[in-house]
């Protein structure tokens, strides 16, 4: 066993970097403080893991994480853990995008243990797991969050075609 990858559970090496999956600044509120994608200090078993954090207003925050695993099993386990952690999040009429191609997909909104009302989306394509969460306010509405999620998923779908 190497890197958690055994035979049919191994993912093919991708021809792109996780850094190519960045969200353009225009998807975030004007006057946001936008950090670039940076490596995570604790990749949680991923071969490659990056994070982008965006701040706006007094309490606005969005967190975007990308984890690339060599094994579909490890990726699916991380997706399941993320979804379990978001068990208090429910569907929302304006967060209605649903991925037509992802292996696993979840989105919902609710009150977070980190404070405030947030929306979150988790997307898995093979060994790649994306998590996006944002505090919802007048500068980042549910509809805007939905558009960011759609952008990310369509970008992934192009890479995995």
Describe the structure.
The protein is about 20% helix and about 30% strand. It has helices spanning about 70-85, 140-160, and strands at about 35, 40, 50-55, 60-70, 105-110, 115-125, 130-135. Strands 1, 2, 3, 4, 5, 6 and 7 form a seven-stranded antiparallel beta sheet that branches. It is globular. With about 160 residues, the protein is α+β, with helices and mostly antiparallel strands. It is built from two helices and seven strands, in the order E-E-E-E-H-E-E-E-H. The longest helix has 18 residues, at about 140-160. A hairpin with an 8-residue loop joins strand 2 and strand 3 (about 50-55). The chain has one domain (about 30-160): Protein Transport Mog1p, Chain A (3-Layer(aba) Sandwich).
Quick overview of this protein structure:
The protein has 161 residues and is α+β, with helices and mostly antiparallel strands. It contains two helices and seven strands; from the N terminus they run ββββαβββα. It has a single domain, classed as 3-Layer(aba) Sandwich (Protein Transport Mog1p, Chain A), CATH 3.40.1000.
In CATH, the topology is named Protein Transport Mog1p, Chain A
Estimate the mean pLDDT confidence: 91
Indicate the CATH architecture: 3-Layer(aba) Sandwich
Tally the helices: what do you get? 2
- As for the number of domains, it is 1
Give the CA-CA distance, first to last residue.
29 Å
The low-confidence parts are none
Q: What is the ordering of alpha helices and beta strands?
A: EEEEHEEEH
């Amino acid at each position: 066993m190497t890197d958690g990858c055994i035979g049919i559970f191994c993912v093919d090496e991708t021809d792109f970097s996780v850094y190519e999956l960045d969200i353009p600044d225009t998807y975030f509120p004007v006057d946001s403080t936008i950090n670039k994608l940076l490596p995570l200090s604790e990749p949680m078993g991923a071969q490659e893991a990056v994070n982008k954090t965006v701040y706006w207003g007094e309490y606005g925050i969005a967190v975007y994480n990308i984890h690339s695993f060599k094994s579909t099993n490890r990726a699916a386990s991380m997706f399941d853990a993320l979804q379990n952690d978001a068990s208090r999040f429910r569907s929302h009429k304006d967060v209605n995008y649903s991925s037509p191609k992802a292996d696993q997909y979840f989105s919902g909104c609710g009150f977070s243990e980190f404070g405030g009302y947030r929306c979150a989306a988790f997307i898995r394509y093979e060994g790649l797991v994306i998590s996006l969460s944002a505090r919802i306010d007048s500068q980042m509405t549910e509809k805007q969050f939905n558009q960011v999620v759609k952008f990310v998923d369509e970008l992934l779908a192009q890479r995995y075609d």
